[in-house]
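USER: I would love a firmer grasp of how sequence relates to backbone shape in proteins. This is the protein in question:
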Amino acid sequence: MHNVESLSDRLVMLKNGREVLTGTIPDIQAQYGETRIHLKQPAVSAQAITQLPGVVAMHQQGDEFDLELDDPARGREVFQAVTQGEYITGFSQHAPSLDEIFRMKVGDDNA
């Protein structure tokens, strides 16, 4: 999907021959809102992160975490909870990747 993003101006996604999504990549991503957070070295534990309101999924790799939110507006609450007044080396809130959107819309039996 990374190649698709770099080569395409507009996309059409089909499932069983039916269109499920169409538009520019930014327009498609905007439909999903900034429901993803990437953070590094949070001031709280992984267990505490999973219990934050609005966090519906978390993936941890070392001291980095990728979170999925139920609502983009929860990003501020998550930021306040994971920093707790402490410095963290990374926090970004963004829309799902094209690959994530593809998996949501078309499905991936192997994921």
